[in-house]
Amino acid sequence: MNILVTGGAGQLGSYLIDTLSAGHEVRALDIREPVIEEHHPLISHVDIRDQAAVERECEWADGIVHAAAQVSVERSIEEPEVDADINIIGTLSMLKAASLAGVGIFVYISSSAVYGDPKYLPVDEAHPRNPKSPYGISKLTAEEYVRVYGESRDLDYLIIRPFNFYSSRADPGSPYSGVITKFVSNIKAGEPILIEGDGEQTRDFVHALDVAEMVRRSVESQVRNLTMNCGSGKGTSINELAEVLASICENVEIRHVAPRIGDIKHSIADISLVRDFVGFEPKIPLREGLISFFD
Ligand SMILES: NC(=O)c1ccc[n+]([C@@H]2O[C@H](COP(=O)([O-])OP(=O)(O)OC[C@H]3O[C@@H](n4cnc5c(N)ncnc54)[C@H](O)[C@@H]3O)[C@@H](O)[C@H]2O)c1
Fold first, then answer.
1. pLDDT at position 176 over 80
2. Do residues 161 and 125 touch, judged by C-beta distance below 8 A?
3. Which fold has domain 2-166+207-231+269-278?
4. What is the pTM of this model?
5. Fewest CB atoms within 10 Å of the CB: 80, 133, 198, 227?
């Protein structure tokens, strides 16, 4: 299959290129330069909101994995119009281009942010969608466009809702990086790691390579027109995360600071659906994934 990955210079996008290239022709697009040297020839400098350019890119494709996004919850609060423009209008332009090109499958990388505060745990796909941030709203709105566009234009789709993924390919220079990237950066700089609140809040951490593997399996399966969670299926508290890092590295100082306003207390994915439908099982244990930051 010829597969076009959007956001190919990003954390997940770069693993998607590696993973999908094993059995497919892969090209990608992004607005920034890839960090991985070998990915340079594969990535076109294209903004997903540039309709004419994405239509040209999609002509070649049999399948699209749409991972490009404005990914920061904080930035979505500061600049909701930018977030909506990239995540909603950008997704619409990809859908239009995919439909014109007659691609066989459109995979949308959504987010667990669509659920908001969990009403029960683990969170399955039937859980009410109640996003708490403009980012969650834009990811949910884009999902709905994918579903309705897919149904009305005969475009097969899959919607994947990853929980918190991490890897050493996340941008440590970003002011909006995730908790694992922040903790590792601080440890490497000899600074204390700062836990917001009591640290008892839980997250479902899954390695970005596992997410890419789940996407590959889904694309290659017969499963279509379905929404699936992607996570480890386990909750890890921020205190536990800090302890694992302290057991890997020497002299880690842990400090507690004020809780973040509006933070979700617990988040754990129910991954029964993706286990049953595509046989996905996450392979990289958290400790192993964390050790890889210090190789
Ligand atoms: N990181 C997580 O924990 C997490 C969790 C759930 C869902 N997601 C989703 O996974 C996807 C990938 O996230 P990531 O963590 O790899 O982020 P990332 O920031 O590393 O990658 C996103 C890429 O999209 C590109 N991009 C942004 N705007 C663009 C535009 N207008 N045109 C073209 N490219 C553009 C960026 O340059 C970046 O390379 C996103 O859709 C995100 O919403 C991430």
1. no
2. yes
3. Rossmann fold (3.40.50)
4. 0.97
5. 198
